[in-house]
Amino acid sequence: MAEQTSSESKEDIPEITPFDPTKKKKKKKVVIQDIAEEDRLSEKIDNLTLADGVENAFVGMKKKKKKPVGSDLTNDGSPQTGQGGEEEEDPNNSRQKYPWEGTDRDYLYEELLSRVFHILRENNPELAGDRRRTVIRPPQVLREGTKKTVFVNFMDLCRTMHRQPDHVMTFLLAEMGTSGSLDGQQRLVVKGRFAPKNFEGILRRYINEYVICNGCRSPDTILSKENRLFFLRCEQCGSGRSVAPIKTGFVARVGRRKAGS
Amino acid sequence: MSDLDIQIPSALDPFAEANAEDSGAGSKEYVHIRVQQRNGRKSLTTVQGLKKEFSYNKILKDLKKEFCCNGTVVQDPELGQVIQLQGDQRKNVSSFLTQAGIVKKDHIKIHGF
Questions:
Q1: Which of A91, A89, A88 is nearest to A73 (CA)?
Q2: Which residue of chain B is at minimal alpha-carbon distance from A256?
Q3: B90 within 8 A of B33, measured Cβ to Cβ
Q4: Residue among B35, B82, B84 whose CB faces A177 most closely
Q5: Mean of the per-residue pLDDT values of chain B
Q6: What's the pLDDT tens digit per position in A120-138?
Q7: Do the Cβ atoms of B48 and A251 come closer than 8 Å?
Q8: How distant is the Cα of B55 from the closest Cα of chain A, in angstroms?
């Protein structure tokens, strides 16, 4: 059925199609370059995956169009192996056709990079940037009486961050400049009134400082203590860094007035 | 002999530079601005880690005048002098300190929620 339509437009399509993919490729390249200049590598990876997704969509669209054309071409005796290399292979291979094929120009960095990512994604997809985003649930906060605040899902958050509750707790308390403790149900009880937003801000700072890897921005890290210093080691990229210790009693504790309490 | 050997590199002063760099890193001592809750909706701002060369009382006077709040300089046994201000003045203080050229912006750390 497809052969009929393709045979009708057989004359036109081979002229148009060599233009089309290059156009799209070029567009894609430009987009990537623009973004790449501005952003860091990790975000670049994201953009690449995004762009590739778009391209894949295009490929999917192309498949239907091109298969008949390719078969026709092969029937004709495959006259355009060099130029029309993109069309005549089966769809699985079509993404491996590179824009520099048929020409003898130098490879562009973006092209090589996308090639690497294609190969990586085909062979072991878990390495190629498709990272799952760990979502930290918003803190649930209750008021206990008027002067105490209870952080309900504290343990949950510690578990998702893979951090010792002790460490998180000391950081929270040091930042808020109050005292607090864990209660029977492993909730954090903090003295003072705090809104959930406050906790969120502090947790965000904690994650930036003590959870996220500086190299690859992944939260998959381990905090270990080596002779009194805390070190953060990334599970993804293997990089490590030292981390500032939490200084709890930092503030000149301006304790309550004696008359106040 | 050994004295001579030691003196020659010391003439090159490798340590002077190192010390200078150290002092450069030492100037990365953060100024910590914290907020503490008091009773009710009252709070307290503390500024800690300003350089010793500055006259805390003069800074405090300007801060008080600028933000229309009261404050004191507290002598802490470990941390030296700490400026205390009434109310949550964190943003005010940090902008004031940077504008007055007392501290660079990236040497200020604002704590609290």
A1: A88
A2: B38
A3: yes
A4: B35
A5: 76
A6: 878 776 665 555 566 778 8
A7: yes
A8: 19
